[in-house]
Amino acid sequence: MDFFDVVTTQRAMRRLEPRPIPDALLRQIMDAAICAPSGGNRQGWSFLIIRDGAKRARLGELYREAWGELMKVPYYAGAAKEPPDSPAGRMLASARHLSEHLGEAPVLVLACVALDPGVTPSLTTGASIYPAVQNLMLAARAHGVGSCITTIHRFRDAQVKELLGIPAGVETAALIPLGYPRGRFGRPPRRPLREVAFADRWGDAF
């Protein structure tokens, strides 16, 4: 696919078919992930590629529990009160579907990043893992594979780490379900560029 077609039509796909993704395709997607930049080129990332049915099912259970925690957060609690056909209502319905069917996705990728001893995770910690996550998702889109990024699993982070044997000092930065989408790719709704890109001074539209 053309690069700009990939970038502008890769959107959150939370309704996924259970049919498997070929190993060769999955390896190509993951190879694209590790071509991303990282701080100091340290490449402190790790990716758990989970296809085992029992582990996916257990992650699905933990994710459903985590969803219940998320719905206590004011933004999502407020979104639950919006009309079902509103943008917030549609987003919530899609996210709820994922919470109920996460374990059915054929592949779950847990993106992790190692921390230096004694270092507390901060906003900049993500600079060494989230570019790789975006590479992964763009590569998936180029192959017609749907994905989305979620961090809701962190409400049950200790249980997730125990299930998968993740050592201390490694942060679970994102959970990415992969699967062939039930819906269609397309440009997602976004605020216009003039509202979010400024020229030389905050508030001056680019």
Task: Describe the protein.
By secondary structure, the chain is α+β, with helices and mostly antiparallel strands. The chain has a single domain (3-196), classed as NADH Oxidase (3-Layer(aba) Sandwich). 40% of the residues lie in helices and 13% in strands. The protein has helices spanning 3-9, 23-33, 53-70, 74-79, 87-101, 130-142, 157-164, 193-196, and strands at 45-50, 107-114, 146-147, 170-179. Strands 1-2-4-3 form a four-stranded antiparallel beta sheet. Helix 1 packs across helix 6 and helix 2 runs antiparallel to helix 6. The mean pLDDT is 95.
Low-confidence stretches: none
Structural class by SSE content: alpha+beta
**How is the main sheet built?**
4 strands, antiparallel
How many separate domains make up the residues?
A: 1
The H/E string reads HHEHHHEHEHEH
Instruction: Please state the second-level CATH architecture.
Output: 3-Layer(aba) Sandwich
- DSSP strand (E) fraction? 5-15%
Summarize the structure.
The chain is an alpha+beta fold and 206 residues long. The protein has 8 helices and 4 strands; from the N terminus they run H-H-E-H-H-H-E-H-E-H-E-H.
